[in-house]
Amino acid sequence: MQNHRNVEKKHFCPACDHFHYVPNSNVPNAVGVCLFNPPSPFIVGMVPIAASVVRADPPEQQQMAPVIRAYYPPVGREDTCSQWTPRPAGEA
Fold first, then answer.
1. Cβ distance 43 to 67 under 8 Å?
2. What are the angstrom distances between the C-alpha of 48 and each of 30, 54, 58, 60, 69?
């Protein structure tokens, strides 16, 4: 099996312009996140919500609302992708 062209050229995520270092990540082997695309939303669960108006007849069922979170994809030191862009030289 042959290495990917980005691996051969040492085009890893930490050297990419879209990489953002995250010092305290809870994801194993991740050192940062990729900011190339918007964060990916997903539903974590459902929580009950209180109705603003409660009628006496008939008793209504409790409504549920989704809990939505969005995260950027975590990346490690040796991760790479096809959207790799070199970090501009001279910028802080």
1. yes
2. 34, 15, 19, 13, 17
- pLDDT tier, 29 (very low <50, low <70, confident <90, very high otherwise): confident
Per-residue model confidence (pLDDT) at position 38: 92
What span, in angstroms and rounded, lies between the C-alpha atoms of 79 and 18? 13
Does the pLDDT value for residue 54 go beyond 80? no
- Are 86 and 17 in contact, with CB atoms under 8 Å apart? yes
Break the chain into its structural domains and give their ranges. 5-75
Q: Detail the DSSP E strand segments found in 1-92.
A: 19-21, 32-34, 40-49, 63-71, 74-75
54, 61, 64, 65 from 58: Cα distances, Å: 10, 9, 18, 22
Using one digit for the tens of pLDDT, what is the confidence trace for 74-84? Answer: 998 888 888 88
